[in-house]
Amino acid sequence: MQCLRFFNNEMFYTDRELDFIMNALCMCNPTDRRDFFEECLRRRRRERMLWDVTPVAKVFTGKSKWDLLRSLALVRLVKDQLGINFAWARNEKFKLDRIKTKAEFAMLDVQEKMNDLLSMFPQIKPDEIRKALADNNHDRTATAEVLVRKSMEIRKRENARLRRMQNKGWYSCLACTLVNKASLEMCAACGTPRGNAVIIRDEKDTKIVKNTLTQVRYLSFISGIKSSLFFLLNYNLKMCNRF
């Protein structure tokens, strides 16, 4: 009867009942008894799985160590708990390694997308591209669409700025050297088209050009007067010689 209870994985017995069990299992050593009991316990899936602190532990231990059963039970509990903690730590480390690996792959993917967008839109600052990429959940296609619109706006602003600068500048006529406003397509004096004339935007350079052209015009005017006077003088001398 006691052997059937042992086979049924019951753990609480009196001293007399334990003597019956050990007499019945006298041909088996304590280690075999314990292995058999634990295997039956595992297969039955009982709620109580710890037998170390119950009377049945005497069946698996020699009589000389019965005084140490409580200490052995505590050692076994600590050992099992350490094993559980070690398995948990190893599992957490594996999860952490996976997270770290995923983070590294994500960083490499983001860096590759950044390099592609920088090569496509060199006129936009890297910080603005990085912000646009983050706002679009690192979607390269959606970010590229946003950057295309931004690039067009930048180009429009730049063209408008260049037009304003051209209208504020000056250029010298290629034919008569008159200094005209850059907004004029033709020279105000001779009507020559502006063509490839250099537009001067700096006020200092404009003053220098104006002063230089004024000196040239003055010298040309004096030279013309001298030529006219010389022509008239020669004409008068010829007329005097005739008479």
Describe the structure.
This protein has about 240 residues and is mainly alpha-helical. It folds into three domains: about 90 residues, no CATH class; about 70 residues, Helicase, Ruva Protein, domain 3; about 70 residues, no CATH class. The chain is about 65% helix and about 5% strand. It is built from seven helices and three strands. A hairpin with a 6-residue loop joins strand 1 and strand 2.
Largest sheet, strands/sense/barrel:
3 strands, antiparallel
Overall mean pLDDT: 76
User: Roughly what percent helix?
Assistant: 55-70%
Number of distinct helices:
7
Structural classification = mainly alpha
How widely separated are the two ends? 175 Å
Beta-strand proportion: under 5%
Radius of gyration: 53 Å
Element pattern in H and E: HHHHHHEEEH
Low-confidence stretches: none
Essential attributes:
three-stranded antiparallel sheet; rod-shaped; 243 residues; mainly alpha; 7 helices; Helicase, Ruva Protein, domain 3; 3 strands
Task: List strands and helices in order, with pairings.
Elements: H1 2-7, H2 15-24, H3 30-44, H4 69-120, H5 126-135, H6 140-168, E1 170-172, E2 179-181, E3 199-200, H7 203-242
Antiparallel strand pairs: 1-2, 1-3
Helix pairs in contact: 5-6
